[in-house]
Write a structure and sequence with these properties.
Blueprint (H helix, E strand, L loop, with lengths): L18 H23 L9 E12 L15 E11 L13 E7 L16 E6 L9 H16 L2 H20 L6 H6 L11 E2 L4 E3 L2 E9 L2 H4 L13 H12 L2 E9 L23 E8 L7 H10 L16 H20 L16
Antiparallel strand pairs: 1-2, 1-9, 2-3, 3-4, 5-7, 6-7, 7-8, 8-9
Helix pairs in contact: 1-2, 1-8
Length: 362
C-alpha cells in the first residue's frame, strides 16, 4: 500500500518569487486588524480564531498502526496528554448569531523529535483544524486578494454579516442544484449554526507525514458526538456555542478519531494549493489515533484566562516529521509569531508552552 503514496521531499514545495512581498503585505493588514480589535476591547485577541468556546483536557491514544502510518508522532503506540481549544474563525469577538467556520486546535504534549522552529525548546505538537476541508485562498496570492474582502465583511455590523451569510446559503443551494461544487469562501460564509461538537475538523493544508505527505482531520467517533453531526441548535444567541460545549462536558465526555489522508498524486492532490479538495477515492482518510475527552468544566474562569491570554497554538509548533507545507502554511510562520508576540505583550502575559497537563487550570 505504501507504494501508492508520494514520498516527501523538499521539492514538493515551490516558493514563489513574490512570496516575501505578499507575506509582508498580509502581515501589515493582520496587524492593523489586531490593533483595531485591541482598541475596541482594550485587550489583545488572536488575529484569527479570536473567540474561544471551550478549553479541554484530553488524551491522544495511538495504537499499533500499519507500517506506512508509523510516522512522526504516530511511529509507536502510546498515550499523550492533550489540550484542545474550540473557537470561531474571525479575528475578533463576534456574536454567535453570525455564522462562521469553527476551529479545533489540538496541542499534544511531550512529543519527541527535532523541532521545526529555531529556539523552540518545547516538546509539543500542534494541529490546527477547521470544519471546512479546503481554503478558498489556497495560495498566498489568492489570500492576499481575499484578505481585504474578508476583513471588510468582519467590520460590517452584525445584521449585515448575518444577511451576507443568508445570501451565501441561498447562492450555495442554487449552485448545488445545478451540480457545481461551491467554493470554500461560499461554504465558509454559508455555514449554518450546527452543533460544533458534531463537526469534522480538517487541517485544510498539507503537512509532512514522516516519509509521506498528508492532510489531518478529526471526526466524531463516540455515539454522543456522532449524534450531534448536522444537528440544528435552534435559536442562537451571542455565546450559544460556548454554552453548548460547557453543557455537554459538564456530564459527558467525547471521542474523536484523528485521521490522515495521504497524498497519492501531486497533480490531483497538490501541496501548494490548499483550495483543492483531495479526492477520497484516490486516498481515503485512515485512522491514526483516538482523541478521548472526559467530562470537565470546559470554560472555568481560570481556564479561560489561561487559554485566551497565555496559551498559543501554532502549526509550526512541532517536529520536523510534521512540517506544514505550501505557501499558506509558510506565511503562518511569521503571522503566528507576530500575533502571539503582540497578544502576550499587550496583555502582559508570559509566553510559555505547557510541559504537563497539570499546567492547565481546572
Amino acid at each position: 500500500m505504501a507504494d501508492t503514496y508520494i514520498l516527501y521531499s523538499p521539492d514538493v514545495e515551490m516558493v514563489g518569487d513574490d512570496e516575501d512581498r505578499l507575506t509582508a503585505e498580509i502581515l501589515e493588514i493582520m496587524a492593523s486588524t489586531n490593533r483595531r480589535a485591541f482598541e475596541r476591547h482594550r485587550h489583545a485577541v488572536r488575529d484569527a480564531h479570536a473567540k474561544s468556546h471551550g478549553f479541554l483536557k484530553a488524551e491522544l491514544i495511538v495504537p499499533e498502526l500499519q507500517q506506512h502510518l508509523r510516522q512522526g508522532l504516530f511511529a509507536r503506540p502510546g498515550t499523550y496528554p492533550v489540550v484542545i481549544r474550540l473557537s470561531s474563525a474571525p479575528g475578533d469577538i463576534h456574536s454567535d448569531t453570525i455564522p462562521a467556520p469553527r476551529g479545533m486546535a489540538i496541542k499534544v504534549l511531550g512529543v519527541e523529535g527535532e523541532r521545526l522552529l529555531p529556539g523552540d525548546t518545547g516538546r509539543n505538537q500542534d494541529f490546527l483544524l477547521v470544519n471546512i476541508p479546503v481554503l478558498s485562498f489556497g495560495t498566498i496570492g489568492k489570500y492576499r486578494q481575499l484578505i481585504g474582502l474578508l476583513e471588510k465583511n468582519a467590520q460590517n455590523p452584525a445584521f449585515l454579516q448575518r444577511a451576507m451569510a443568508g445570501v451565501a446559503r441561498g447562492v450555495e443551494a442554487a449552485v448545488e442544484a445545478v451540480g457545481v461544487e461551491p467554493g470554500a469562501t461560499l461554504r465558509g460564509l454559508a455555514r449554518d449554526n450546527d452543533h460544533l461538537l458534531g463537526e469534522t475538523y480538517h487541517s485544510m493544508a498539507a503537512i509532512r507525514f514522516g516519509d509521506y505527505i498528508a492532510k489531518i482531520s478529526a471526526a466524531p467517533l463516540s455515539d454522543n458526538v456522532r449524534a450531534l453531526t448536522g444537528q440544528d441548535v435552534g435559536t442562537v444567541e451571542d455565546s450559544t456555542m460556548r454554552d453548548l460545549v460547557v453543557e455537554h462536558f459538564r456530564e459527558q465526555g467525547a471521542e474523536y478519531q484523528l485521521r490522515a489522508q495521504l497524498c497519492a498524486d501531486l497533480d490531483k492532490m497538490p501541496v501548494e494549493d490548499a483550495a483543492v479538495l483531495w479526492p477520497d477515492d484516490l486516498s481515503p482518510h485512515q485512522p491514526l489515533a483516538t482523541l478521548r475527552i472526559p467530562p470537565q468544566d470546559a470554560y472555568s474562569p481560570a481556564r479561560r484566562v489561561y487559554g485566551d491570554d497565555v496559551l498559543s497554538f501554532n502549526p509550526w509548533h512541532g517536529i520536523r516529521e510534521h512540517q506544514p507545507l505550501g505557501s499558506i502554511m509558510r506565511v503562518r510562520i511569521a503571522a503566528y509569531e507576530r500575533s502571539t508576540r503582540y497578544r502576550h505583550e499587550m496583555n502582559a502575559q508570559p509566553r510559555v508552552e505547557p510541559t504537563s497537563i497539570e499546567a492547565i487550570p481546572d
